[in-house]
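Researcher: Here's the sequence for the chain we discussed earlier.
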Amino acid sequence: MGLVACGDIEGSDNGSFDGMWQLTQVDSVGASVSFDMRQSHIFWSVQGSMLEMSHHEKVNGDNSTPLLFRFEFVSDTLHVTNPVINYRREQDPSPTSPKAAEFYGLNGLEEAFLVRQLSVSKMVLETCRQQDNIVMHFRKY
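Model: Thanks. This is the structure I predict for it:
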């Protein structure tokens, strides 16, 4: 009865994509170089139609800002769009520079990824760029 009093509870059609993902590895496709990212504490959190990218440990003057994105899956492609800076206590402004998203592996304020693997515990995404493609590996946290 208590749940009914809370109003509508909306589910998600995101399947395995829902939840918190930790970035564990980044591979540069063209340069054949891999970077271990486990100590970076970069997380993507997915719920409903929102994707938050955040850095959970700020060290050495790091000024990364949590970003909220809208997203959608089209076939095996993830489209990340419409970013806002997640200030929580103030109105969430839109970032004005692509640099705000570079920290999280995006080439701009919008990005498309090929979903190479998605399971309940692992996700692998590859950027859909003309050049400098990267592959991002995540583990479900």
